[in-house]
Amino acid sequence: MASYEHLSGKFVKVSSPEPHILLVELARKPVNAFSDEFWEEFGSVFDKIGLEPDVRVVVLASALPKLFSGGIDFAGLGSKPDYQKDVARRGLQTHHQLKRFQHAIGAPERCPFPVIVAIHGATVGLAVEIISACDIRLAAEDTKFSIKEAQIGLAADIGSLARVPKIAGNQSLVRELALTARDFSAVEGEKLGLVSRVVSGSRNEVIEEALKVARLISANSPIAVVGTKRVLLHSRDSTVDENLEYVATWNASMLQSVDLEVAVNAAKAKQAPKYPAIGKIGSKL
After folding, report:
1. Where are the domains of the chain?
2. pLDDT in tens, the chain (285 residues)
3. Following DSSP, what letter does each residue of 44-75 receive, concatenated?
4. By the 8 A CB rule, do 206 and 139 touch?
């Protein structure tokens, strides 16, 4: 089985517990608070994963036993506007920094492979923005979420206000949670539609459940899985007709994949299909 240690950084650890599956763990003690160095590394690791030829699915989790992430480390944010400049120039500096931050935290969405996030414990502020950029969200029963930004003087600007309303089925509750900044439980997160389901236990149990889902995904055609993620993302931001045109164009070439033949032959032989590696496809969707 391939080794993926070369993808790891100072705060983001990458391993492969099973063929075709990567486990990406956030590991900045004491609470996985995101400094500039941490979020830059986070984005870089996911973009590198997108270049790996034999990966099919990624599980994102925290390496810390008691929580997922405490959000932003304000003391560790280094790039601040030059207050000797006028407001327009400071605004341009801040805008540039926010766009870089957004790009890094959105890396799971850009990743061509499905990203399953296994959530436990405190999941605060920026942590909600991270999980909302993932494809599948599973929460341990001890998870406590908070869209915290309104409580500390800003509108959340890295992704939760853009993505959570499109994920959730209860727009009133989204607004309540974002405007009050109150904590909400895993059960309420499931009610909101933020997570697929609540898993009994904590870190170990929710990671194991995420790996079970990853196994099911990795057994499918990698061409079909990559295409499904891409078409679903397009569907989120498009009309039905636009998405139908998009998938028709996409499948005009993808339906010529050898994976269709492999799947049919395996079904006839009553065997598990063995798909070829997808090769390097990049990380930009």
Report:
1. 5-218, 222-269
2. 678 989 999 999 999 999 999 999 999 999 999 999 999 999 999 999 999 999 999 999 999 999 999 999 988 666 566 667 789 988 999 899 999 999 999 999 999 999 999 999 999 999 999 999 999 999 999 999 999 999 988 899 999 999 999 999 899 999 999 999 999 999 999 999 999 999 999 999 999 999 999 999 999 999 999 999 999 999 999 999 999 999 999 999 999 999 989 998 998 999 999 999 887 776 555
3. HHHHHHTT-TT--EEEEEESSSSEEE--B-GG
4. yes
The correct answer on CATH 3.90.226.10 for the domain covering 5-218 is yes
Amino acid at 222: P
CATH of domain 222-269: 1.10.12.10
Q: Helix-strand-coil percent breakdown of the chain, rounded to 5?
A: 50, 15, 35
Burial of 147 from C-beta contacts in 10 A (0-12 / 13-18 / 19+): buried
CA 126, 127, 131, 137 dihedral sign is negative
Handedness of CA 100, 168, 250, 51 (dihedral sign): positive
Helix axes 222-236, 240-254, angle to 10 degrees: 160
